[in-house]
Amino acid sequence: MNALGLVSMRLCAGLMGRRSAVNPPFLRFSSGMTSSQIDEEVAKLLQLKAQLGGDEGKHVFVLKTAKGTRDYNPKQMAIREKVFSIIISCFKRHGAETIDTPVFELKETLTGKYGEDSKLIYDLKDQGGELLSLRYDLTVPFARYLALNKITNIKRYHIAKVYRRDNPAMTRGRYREFYQCDFDIAGQYDAMIPDAECLKIVYEILNELDLGDFRIKVNDRRILDGMFAVCGVPDEKFRTICSTVDKLDKMAWEDVKKEMVNEKGLSEDVADRIGEYVSMQGGQDLAERLLQDPKLSQNKQAFAGLTDMKLLFSYLELFQVTDKVVFDLSLARGLDYYTGVIYEAILSQTIPASVSTPAEQNGADEAGVSVGSVAGGGRYDGLVGMFDPKGRKVPCVGVSIGIERIFSIMEQKAETSSEKVRTTETQVLVASAQKNLLEERLKLTSQLWNAGIKAEVLYKKNPKLLSQLQHCEETGIPLVAILGEQELKDGVVKLRNVASREEVDVPRADLVDEIKKRTL
Amino acid sequence: MQLKAQLGGDEGKHVFVLKTAKGTRDYNPKQMAIREKVFSIIISCFKRHGAETIDTPVFELKETLTGKYGEDSKLIYDLKDQGGELLSLRYDLTVPFARYLALNKITNIKRYHIAKVYRRDNPAMTRGRYREFYQCDFDIAGQYDAMIPDAECLKIVYEILNELDLGDFRIKVNDRRILDGMFAVCGVPDEKFRTICSTVDKLDKMAWEDVKKEMVNEKGLSEDVADRIGEYVSMQGGQDLAERLLQDPKLSQNKQAFAGLTDMKLLFSYLELFQVTDKTSSEKVRTTETQVLVASAQKNLLEERLKLTSQLWNAGIKAEVLYKKNPKLLSQLQHCEETGIPLVAILGEQELKDGVVKLRNVASREEVDVPRADLVDEIKKRTL
């Protein structure tokens, strides 16, 4: 019974649903245009080409992606899928939901949120409607989402691409389109528990990704501010000195001090006092020691920060992650909106700055993140309030995983390892050594698909066995189901292990189970 | 604040416009959970068929997209000229796919790509359309033996729609070459092919009379030509329709149509092997419940047809007979196909002498001679 059988003479595939009309002959869809309309469009195209810079009449098609962007080929996608799968399963293990937001926002939504970095925002052309810009990170859209939907509590992750018009001269190799992978907990809760969970999540993810040893540095914006105050930094210079201190992961102290004194106008004394503090690292003990520091403990901000740092460490102890967490007074992080704890995860095996490309673009969404950094974040209690008409505050703490950096590392690992990265998950190729068995091959393949088996068959009526086996080897298909006249008569299929070349005749009825068993 | 003033002023009040851009929307966690489920079903089907996946940037060089979308080009989102390359947001996934193949000199690939695309639809004309929306494409690129990849695409659609459990569905197929051949034999001038094509395409939304009106009044076809097109476009069927049309003297002489029809036959043979013709989707949505049409291939058998039809009605069988003294067998069979009647009881001089009726299965065309006395039972058995 031929029930797929509605050959409709009416069906004109000029436009099918949302598929658009396309001209090039090698594509299936007609443009729905007459030849005179086509001539008109070609003329427009040539005119546009001339406007765009001329090519002396030659038809030179510029075949490239936009600067700072790249395609992901199937191998890269396979790695990407594996990384996302590990990360997402960790988020889900911690009870997070996910959301998605549009790739562009109203320009005014993004205005005034990124400080100096605002010049790196991609704007859309004014085409007569709203002014739009491509999202620069996932945090501002998150804050907008919370305010718009009047949400006060949510634990959410969001994995998506963001866009920054980085100047290639200054920041070699940076991508302009790259993934961010954010996890945030919004809501008023008892102090430091959600903050601790964020760190536990970073720890779990970095462990499971098997990237080698790592450290998570933590500090607190209040401790930094308190420290600047007791060292004698004028209030109005706090943020700018903060950015300078942030460069300690890339620059030596002498150069950082030079910038503070020569460019930012601090006295040498003040710079030296800062120098003493920022060389300090430790664990819970450091927090306790600093609480004994007479100057620091008198400063309200620093006291609050240090008390919370102690509390944080006690939770991290319970979460069993203290072996890799370090309280580091030199950690500053560039973005303006952090109000409390801040942290950054760094791989111990770092790659020199000149080699790594998206190194600086790891999850951190601000300038000046150190080489080897794979995650960063902190508490930002004031951001959502900026979006809410009544200024209602929703405290937030979160982390951004440096997924591009992780992709890079995994891609390098895949290249150096002997294990092939498969781009498909096919379990078996249905093949034949003899001619005129296309029908039987198609039938068997269909039966396997119907049983949920991942199967392929060559689009050739009479392929050579060798090319079929080669296809398996090239794409990593582990099994091949070989049909032949004799096998068909006997009601069996020759199931061969591609790697070992061991063959066994399997009764047709048992084939599905046999394949499942062997490709667990 | 200065920038806000530049952007349009707010009389000093802190009025935050809290919204997403027109035509775009957030996905909340519930929607994301549904989305994840749907993607998971679709992707696992693609993977079952050995497809790989790729990803491309959200924007392309403006010149890559230029000249590819005809009239729709005005719906492309451009990025502002900020001193670098001129960029535009991708309008679909097909042009980026073609650019990817050419750039990487790839000649063979079976790939899927699920991603958002962007179109500045004018809301006045197309109410409720999103400007940012997902597309989910599957494509096989490469030179292969005819119709096998085409059949696999259909198998994939079939599997996906089944697994998504959306209820009954139909997959309509046709061929650009058959359409063009049909237009040619009906007398459509070459330069009007594409525009007549768009008009015929509206048959799923408009009645034939209106479509014919557009063809004649707006597109300048003669009524004759329009009527000829009308005869063809009312045809639906399966492999049998392809075979029947290959017998059509005019159509089979047209090179394009012949090639298209031959491939259509081949396609259906593969679809048969792929088992996309099973009961679930075969059940046409019928408007009648007729079990059998009483027919005849020969002339002057109206009386006998009426007699048999009446006997079937008396036995509770749902039967029909054409209101024509001497109908062609072909039109009687066509009627069965169009309305989904599964059986036809064919009378002829010889059958009448032998006291039998030729009972034919419309879909499979299998025939068997059934003694008159057993006919009712046989029909009941077969149309449970």
TrEMBL record, chain A:
Domain called Aminoacyl-transfer RNA synthetases class-II family profile: residue spans: 68-410
Reaction equations catalysed: tRNA(His) + L-histidine + ATP = L-histidyl-tRNA(His) + AMP + diphosphate + H(+)
A molecular function GO annotation: RNA binding
Gene Ontology BP, a term: histidyl-tRNA aminoacylation
InterPro entries: aa-tRNA-synth_II, aa-tRNA-synth_II/BPL/LPL, Anticodon-bd, Anticodon-bd_dom_sf, His-tRNA-ligase, HisRS-like_core, HisRS/HisZ, HisRS_anticodon
Gene3D superfamilies, alphabetized: Anticodon-binding domain, Bira Bifunctional Protein, Domain 2
Signal peptide stretch: none
A Gene Ontology cellular-component term: mitochondrion
EC id: 6.1.1.21
Keywords noted in UniProt: Aminoacyl-tRNA synthetase, ATP-binding, Ligase, Nucleotide-binding, Protein biosynthesis
UniProt-annotated binding residues for L-histidine: D137, L138, T139, R164, Q180, D184, R333, Y337, Y338
Family: Belongs to the class-II aminoacyl-tRNA synthetase family.
Protein's name according to its UniProt entry: histidine--tRNA ligase
Organism: Cyprinus carpio
TrEMBL record, chain B:
Single GO BP term: mitochondrial translation
Protein family according to the UniProt entry: Belongs to the class-II aminoacyl-tRNA synthetase family.
Designated name of the protein: histidine--tRNA ligase
UniProt binding sites for L-histidine: D92, L93, T94, R119, Q135, D139
Catalytic activity annotation: tRNA(His) + L-histidine + ATP = L-histidyl-tRNA(His) + AMP + diphosphate + H(+)
Top-level enzyme category: ligase
Segments forming domain Aminoacyl-transfer RNA synthetases class-II family profile: 23-384
